[in-house]
Amino acid sequence: MRVFKFGGASVKDADGVRNVHAVLQKVGFDDVLIVVSAMGKTTNALELVIKNYFDKAKTLQASVQEVKKYHNQIIIDLFDDESHPVFESVNKLFRELDYFLSHNKSPNYSFVYDQIVSMGELISSTILSHYFAHQNIPNNWVDVRNFVKTDSNYRDAGVNWEVTQKNISKGIKKNILNITQGFIGADDNNFTTTLGREGSDYSAAIFAYCLNAESVTIWKDVPGVMNADPRFFENATLLNQISYREAIELAFYGATVIHPKTLQPLQKKEIPLLVKSFINPILPGTKVSKGADLEPHLPCFIIKREQLLLSLSSIDFSFIMEENISEIFKLLHEFKMKVSLIQNSAISFSVCIEDKYKNFEALKTILAKKFKVSYNENVSLYTIRHFDEKSKTAIEKNKNVLLKQISRETLQMVTKEIDG
Ligand code: ADP
Ligand code: ASP
Ligand code: MG
């Protein structure tokens, strides 16, 4: 079997859905399982619904209405006949959302988040399934929650591989086009869980692993994995082949084109990951597989913006050693700060962190009791894998370099833009 993952950008409007159909016509759809994300920016729109819900904001209904209107427009564009069953199927999902919003009693933010945000994928997969049937492609809509079983760590659920494997081996029909949702799963009580933002790639890898698939294809709005994000680098070049190890490194340092958790299950079974263009599906794109590390062998650039550079030094000039460092890391973990770089000297310790959940103020107060705290906000972290003199100079140009770290393969720099 082949597993295809279509992300939000590929199904952001009716033309996108028609294009997915065109891609299937070109590359075939026998023995395919499709994993689809929410359409366009739906997940962000649903995050606003969740915020309004918790803030008891007057705009709650309006934000729900936005999501309804957006999907309605897409189905009106795709299906001329207003009595088509797709309308009722999608309305049913919206009724479930309304019911949840008016009846939920749980104050658990992460639980509520998952019940609401998962609607995006349920709706998009429903629309796709109906549309393909309408185009005479028989298919099977699969509710992923009956297959991908997880713990109850809402918003970042861990997969129960054993049960998931059993469910998928037993329940997925192999000779028909299957369409299911990325990003979501269900816990033991059958409550919906999610695997973390951008987690649909990971869902595709879970299915591929459990099905012993021949390949996974992630369809993108770019020709494949490039040596830099083409939005920010004019001369980004397509990489033809990347080894699992190199791809894991790139994803780890923040190359957003592949979700970091995706590669490990694939590598275990040596299932190739293809990253291809949904605009030009015939082109080969990038293959992540066993083999050459990087072909062509070029410096690869990764930028992480809106980082925080935090430096701690001891108040009494005592050394910052194992004991202090483990305490600092425990706090960073508790406050959900992701660390992307560490540097220390005898009496000072610096980390480049991402404050995704806006916890820095609270953390700072605690740290200030023991350390002298200094920090730079809104810095960027540049990583160059396989750097050379030219790539290094290019990145340093016009920037204030606050911290630099070099290992054999990787150069990292924390920089602040020079104003003006
Ligand atoms: P999806 O619809 O699958 O979620 P994403 O928007 O997450 O797609 O990923 C595609 C985007 O990733 C591209 O539009 C591109 O700007 C960005 N990107 C970042 N780094 C790279 C890279 N190294 N190569 C290609 N694209 C990249
Ligand atoms: N829809 C989810 C998100 O936007 C999952 C995904 O797209 O991979 O984060
Ligand atoms: Mg994505």
Low-confidence stretches: none
Number of helices: 13
Order of helices and strands: EHEHHHHHEHEEEHEEHHEEEEHEEHEHEE
| Helical amount | 25-40%
Bound molecules: adenosine-5'-diphosphate, aspartic acid, magnesium ion
Largest sheet entry: 9 strands, mixed
What is the CA-based Rg, rounded?
23 Å
Biggest sheet strand line-up: 3-4-2-1-7-9-10-8-11
Termini gap? 54 Å
What percent of residues are in strands?
Answer: 15-25%
- The rough form would be described as globular
Q: How confident overall, as mean pLDDT? A: 94
SSE-based structural type: alpha/beta
Counted beta strands? 17
Can you describe this structure in just a few lines?
This protein is α/β, with parallel strands linked by helices and 420 residues long. It is built from 13 helices and 17 strands.
Structure commentary:
Helices cover 38% and strands 24% of the residues. The chain is of the alpha/beta class. The longest helix is centred in the first third of the chain and has 19 residues, at 60-78. 39% of the residues are buried. The mean pLDDT is 94. The structure holds adenosine-5'-diphosphate, aspartic acid and magnesium ion. Adenosine-5'-diphosphate binds next to loops.
Topology:
Elements (H helix, E strand, L loop, with lengths): L1 E5 L7 H14 L4 E5 L5 H13 L5 H19 L6 H19 L5 H9 L1 H16 L4 E3 L19 H11 L5 E5 L2 E3 L5 E3 L5 H12 L3 E6 L20 E2 L1 H10 L9 H6 L4 E5 L8 E3 L5 E2 L4 E15 L7 H13 L3 E7 L3 E7 L5 H9 L2 E15 L3 H8 L2 E8 L3 E8 L3
Parallel strand pairs: 1-2, 1-7, 2-4, 3-4, 7-9, 8-10
Antiparallel strand pairs: 5-6, 8-11, 9-10, 12-14, 12-15, 13-14, 15-17, 16-17
Helix pairs in contact: 1-3, 2-3, 2-5, 4-6, 7-8
The site of magnesium ion has 2 residues, from loops.
